């Protein structure tokens, strides 16, 4: 709690300064009509919002603010920035939706600062479980509202709902589902004489060797962007760490398991193998994601590990024309099934301190009603695979992986969703030493991960 | 021939009779080589910017390597950038934000520098260093306490809140420039006449001293204007409506992240659009800029 | 007489600036001291006081030493190389060369672009195999297989320093150029008559007269270097490994990625003290040089 007197002096200072501002600014700013508009419509996210009894939301004029992470649509209308405000206005004439969109790194900084200062938007974007800006943190800190009473939960897959829940109650609405996988160049595979798709780790290595022997770079990875490592690593972990111990992370959090577990060392070793054998493009530490994707779409590398969200980039037209395919990295031993690396995508959360919480909920109910124009626009714009009942798969390319996910249920989430943010970064930084040719061992990587996990977890 | 090694000695003029060197081919060659060297260096300076231009002139879905220069000439990316940024609104927002901030910076910094330059006491020296010390603290570090401070003062987060931070963060460098300039470039004598006329301090400052500060004011406007114009950090902290975004914040929307690919062609077009007003302003102000910074820096 | 012309009431002129400065800069900075002894995560509404644990963790961990040494390398190289290149360019442009004004404008252009764009372009320039430098070397027939500017532990830091220099050298040069133009021509003429060669003229005539420009440029690039953040953030994410982690980048990562705002504040305070110390020492040194020169 801040002391009263400090606050009073502060207000006095402010008054002084505003006078100064008004005096100096009037010359160039006098004809700004927007100026007055802001003051009246700004969200007062103060504690007074507790008075939720007001149900006359259909008549009262309300301005909702919404912030999401992402990139503006290159052409046509952007869902969050253009379509949603327009359609919400059509359905609720008294509601004005003001939206903004930032890339995730900037979004994280901005939204945390806004929430911490009580200026959070009414609707914002959260990530599953413990991810950065994860739903668990937001719910625990009291920034995300309990959404149990929304109308459409029956239509959302159980897994997606659980990944956005805290203590059994949903606090976020998942935007969909994402797979990690291997995008590959079918033409180059044929050229190298690979007739059968690899089903397990030995045959995957064999395929890589064939490509390499044919003078083709097997895999391009963007290790200059450290997070890129996760795209391969989590697929391996899904087949090494979790198959016989699905509750590994629960035990980890309870302190019964540790990240220096041999299974994680084995995971790191497999990844290392790809580099040791020269299957990954050389100098990958100098490539950013844009450049690694460039190699793939130009037909200079046969594979790239990436997620379903990068569909547009990886299917864009580059220097070469070829047919793409998509499969789950078979890091499993021979005779074992391949586990799909699949995780719930980010989604909407509502600000628990918003005084317009009820209105925001109505908007969400409308957005996810399964039939409105808004819903259709949403499913059309969403780059993730829908977790809403009855919505068709968005891209044919992912059909096989999607079928295998739906039919045999062998899938593992992305491990970092169960770690505090910072552990994955530690893994990336340590593993970069291996890529860079230092003498770091897989065990040293897992030890560093474990130390970071312990340091950060006690703060949770 | 080994005499004059100090500047003082060299000041003494000597007979300049046999000094003119005859014209020779060697000198011409040297001069041409120099000219060539300059051109090469300048080209190095420009190549990356040529890449920007070339990339921005591609349509948004042309994903070939940006080093294939000018393999397409299309304004499609510019059109996209222009529309999706709401260029008109964003430009207006930028102009308003930058203009108000720069105006306030000039007024506050010039005024604050006046006593620091004129009064010779330990206090004024302390004040000078106190402001200067602010230069070394990076904004990223203090962002959260700043926002909490602004919030606890009850100042709402609006389109204009970033101005507070733009002004504050510009003060250290601007007072540094102004103080140096007043100390060295505006002798106290100019004020005496006004003092004798009975003008008060305030009028004396604004009518006599400030008009003499125009060169350094231009430097302040350029140096502070550039960073304020380009800043997205404070803007993104306080502004949460896209209709209120200035250019850099609107531009940020084209930048990708881990799960959203960057639309480089559009981003570069947006960047050119964002830099264009600056380029224009700079080409008009540049000759003042050099002057101001020099005079201001004669004795820091 | 002086005291009646220059009244102490003048101090009131500093009040508006001081108000802004204290409220929005100095006071928030002092808040960091408070946070540095807590486990505040940057967004929760509660936190606990944990004494000097954050400081202890920092001194025992590897981040502090690593980021300090990276920052110092970044600073020293960008100050020395940046100033030398800037001075060389200024001397070059100060000669009788056609189109001087045009070149001067060109060299200032990089400054006008945002760091995001600059970082991206240079990633392509540095890209292995098909990047600009690699292609150029290919054309010259120079093998460049092991060229990996941003991806090798030994060169990543220097590569981003070069970008920093590239972006700022225009400003440095303009300040030097302006300084050079204050060197009186008759002085140079006199030196030439005295038989000074180009080097001697530079060392004994121009450099002493450039002292102020040098001080300004050094101070500016010193502060820039110590605050280095943009290029590690945009171009390398601190990598490979932690080889381009600067102090400010580490603070940012700690505060906003790992959500340890308390620990980040502690690191902030340590680096704050370091930056002030380094700047103060160099400014004092330069002032002494300037006076004696």
Would you give an account of this structure?
- The complex is a heterotrimer of chains A (460), B (300) and C (293).
- Chain A has helices at 4-29, 34-41, 79-91, 104-116, 135-140, 158-163, 186-191, 201-213, 229-240, 248-254, 262-276, 289-297, 311-314, 357-367, 373-381, 399-408, 423-435, 442-457, and strands at 62-69, 95-102, 123-126, 165-166, 169-170, 173-174, 177-185, 217-220, 301-307, 324-327, 340-344, 347-350, 411-412.
- By secondary structure, chain A is of the alpha/beta class.
- In chain A, the strands form three sheets. In chain A, strands 7, 8, 9, 10, 11 and 13 form a six-stranded mixed sheet that branches. In chain A, strands 2-1-3-12-6 form a five-stranded mixed sheet. A two-stranded antiparallel sheet of chain A has the order 4-5.
- In chain A, β1, α3 (79-91) and β2 (95-102) form a beta-alpha-beta unit.
- In chain A, α9 crosses α11 (262-276) and α17 runs antiparallel to α18.
- Chain A is globular.
- With 300 residues, chain B is mainly alpha-helical.
- Helices cover 70% and strands 0% of the residues of chain B.
- In chain B, α2 packs across α13 and α10 runs antiparallel to α13 (264-296).
- Chain C has 293 residues and is mainly α.
- Chain C is 72% helix and 0% strand.
- Chain C has helices spanning 2-5, 15-35, 53-60, 63-94, 100-112, 115-126, 132-140, 156-180, 185-193, 198-209, 211-226, 230-236, 247-257, 261-292.
- Chain C is globular.
- The model of chain C has no long low-confidence stretch (mean pLDDT 85).
- The chains are: A alpha/beta (460), B mainly alpha (300), C mainly alpha (293).
- Chains in contact: A-B, A-C, B-C.
- At the B-C interface, α1, α2, α4, α5 and α6 of B face α1, α2, α4, α5 and α6 of C.
């Amino acid at each position: 709690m801040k002391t009263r007197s400090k606050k009073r002096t502060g207000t006095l200072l402010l008054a002084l300064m505003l006078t100064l501002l008004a005096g100096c600014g009037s010359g160039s700013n006098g004809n700004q009509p927007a100026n007055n508009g802001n003051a009246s419509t700004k969200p007062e996210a103060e504690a007074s919002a507790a008075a939720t009894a007001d149900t006359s939301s259909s008549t009262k004029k309300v301005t909702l603010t919404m912030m999401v992470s992402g990139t503006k649509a290159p052409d046509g209308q952007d869902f969050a920035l253009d379509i949603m405000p327009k359609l919400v206005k059509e359905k609720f004439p008294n509601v004005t939706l003001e939206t903004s969109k930032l890339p995730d790194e900037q979004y994280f900084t901005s939204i945390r600062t806004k929430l911490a200062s009580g200026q959070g938007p009414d609707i914002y974007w959260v990530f599953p479980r413990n991810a950065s800006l994860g739903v668990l943190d937001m719910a625990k800190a009291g920034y995300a509202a309990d959404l149990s009473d929304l109308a459409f939960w029956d239509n959302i897959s159980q897994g997606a709902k659980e990944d956005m829940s805290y203590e059994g109650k949903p606090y976020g609405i998942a935007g969909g589902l994402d797979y990690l996988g291997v995008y590959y160049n079918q033409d180059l595979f044929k050229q190298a004489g690979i007739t059968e798709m690899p089903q397990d780790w030995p045959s995957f290595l064999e395929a890589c060797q064939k490509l390499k022997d044919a003078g083709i770079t097997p895999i391009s990875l963007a290790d200059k962007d450290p997070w890129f490592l996760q795209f391969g690593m989590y697929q391996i972990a899904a087949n090494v760490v979790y198959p016989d111990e699905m509750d590994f992370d629960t035990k980890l959090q309870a302190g019964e398991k540790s990240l220096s577990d041999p299974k994680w060392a084995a995971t790191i070793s497999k990844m290392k193998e790809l580099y040791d054998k020269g299957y990954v493009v050389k100098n990958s530490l100098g490539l950013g994601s844009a450049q690694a994707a460039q190699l793939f779409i130009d037909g200079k590398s046969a594979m790239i590990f990436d997620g379903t969200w990068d569909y547009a980039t990886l299917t864009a037209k580059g220097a070469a024309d070829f047919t793409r395919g998509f499969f789950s990295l078979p890091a499993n031993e021979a005779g074992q099934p391949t586990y799909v690396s699949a995780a719930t995508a980010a989604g909407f959360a509502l600000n628990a301190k918003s005084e317009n919480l009820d209105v925001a909920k109505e908007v969400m109910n409308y957005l996810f009603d399964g039939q409105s124009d808004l819903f259709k626009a949403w499913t059309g714009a969403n780059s993730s695979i829908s977790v809403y009942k009855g919505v068709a798969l968005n891209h044919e390319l992912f059909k096989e992986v999607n079928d295998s996910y739906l039919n045999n249920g062998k899938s593992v989430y992305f491990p970092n969703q169960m770690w505090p943010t910072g552990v994955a970064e530690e893994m990336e930084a340590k593993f970069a030493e291996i890529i860079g040719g230092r003498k770091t061992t897989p065990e040293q990587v897992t030890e560093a991960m474990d130390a970071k996990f312990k340091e950060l977890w006690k703060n949770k | 021939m080994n005499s004059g090694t100090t500047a003082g000695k060299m000041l003494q003029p000597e007979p300049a009779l046999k000094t003119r060197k005859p014209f020779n081919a060697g000198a011409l060659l040297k001069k041409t080589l120099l000219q060539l060297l300059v051109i090469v260096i300048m080209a190095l300076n420009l190549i990356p910017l040529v890449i920007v231009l070339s990339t921005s002139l591609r349509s948004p879905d042309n994903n070939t390597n940006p080093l294939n220069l000018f393999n397409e000439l299309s304004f499609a990316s510019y059109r996209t950038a222009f529309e999706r940024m709401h260029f008109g609104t964003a430009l207006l927002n930028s102009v308003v934000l930058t203009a108000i901030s720069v105006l306030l910076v000039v007024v506050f910094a010039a005024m604050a520098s006046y006593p620091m330059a004129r009064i010779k006491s330990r206090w004024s020296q302390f004040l000078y260093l106190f402001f200067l010390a602010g230069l070394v603290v990076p904004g990223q570090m203090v962002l959260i306490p700043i926002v909490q401070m602004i919030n606890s003062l009850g100042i709402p987060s609006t389109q204009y809140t970033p101005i507070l931070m733009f002004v504050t963060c510009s003060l250290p460098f601007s007072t540094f420039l102004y103080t140096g300039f007043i100390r060295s470039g505006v002798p106290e004598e100019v004020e005496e006449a006004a003092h004798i006329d009975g003008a008060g301090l305030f009028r004396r400052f604004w009518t006599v001293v400030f008009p003499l500060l125009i060169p350094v004011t231009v430097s302040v406007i350029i140096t502070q204007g550039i960073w304020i114009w380009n800043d997205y950090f404070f803007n993104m902290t306080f502004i949460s409506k896209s209709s209120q975004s200035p250019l850099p914040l609107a531009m940020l929307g084209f930048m990708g992240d881990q799960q959203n690919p960057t639309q480089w062609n559009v981003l570069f077009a947006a960047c050119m659009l964002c830099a264009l007003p600056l380029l224009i302003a700079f080409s008009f102000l540049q000759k003042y800029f050099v002057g101001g910074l020099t005079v201001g820096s004669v004795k820091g | 007489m002086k005291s009646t012309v220059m009244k102490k009431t003048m101090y009131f002129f500093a009040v508006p600036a001081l108000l802004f400065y204290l409220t929005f800069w100095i006071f928030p900075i002092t808040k960091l001291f408070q946070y540095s002894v807590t486990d505040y995560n940057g967004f929760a509404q509660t936190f606990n006081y944990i004494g000097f644990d954050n400081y202890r963790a920092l001194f025992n961990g590897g981040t502090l030493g690593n980021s300090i040494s990276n920052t110092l390398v970044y600073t020293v190289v960008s100050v020395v190389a940046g100033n030398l290149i800037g001075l060389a360019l200024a001397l070059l442009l100060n000669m009788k060369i056609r189109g001087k004004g045009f070149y001067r404008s060109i060299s200032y252009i990089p400054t006008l672009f945002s760091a995001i764009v600059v970082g991206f372009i240079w990633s392509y320039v540095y890209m292995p195999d098909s990047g600009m430098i690699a292609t150029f070397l290919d054309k010259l027939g120079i093998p460049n297989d092991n060229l990996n500017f941003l991806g090798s532990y030994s060169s990543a830091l220097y590569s981003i320093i070069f970008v920093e220099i590239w972006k700022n050298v225009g400003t440095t040069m303009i300040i030097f150029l302006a300084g050079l133009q204050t060197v009186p021509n008759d002085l140079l003429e006199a030196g030439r008559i005295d038989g000074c060669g180009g080097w001697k003229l530079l060392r004994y005539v121009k450099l002493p007269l450039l002292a102020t420009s040098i001080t300004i440029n050094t101070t500016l690039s010193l502060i820039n270097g110590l605050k280095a953040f943009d290029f590690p953030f945009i171009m390398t994410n601190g990598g490979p490994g932690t080889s381009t982690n600067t102090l400010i980048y580490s603070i940012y990562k700690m505060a906003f990625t790992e959500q340890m705002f308390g620990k980040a504040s502690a690191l902030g305070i340590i680096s704050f003290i370091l930056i002030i110390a380094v700047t103060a020492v160099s400014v004092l040194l330069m002032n002494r040089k300037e006076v004696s020169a």
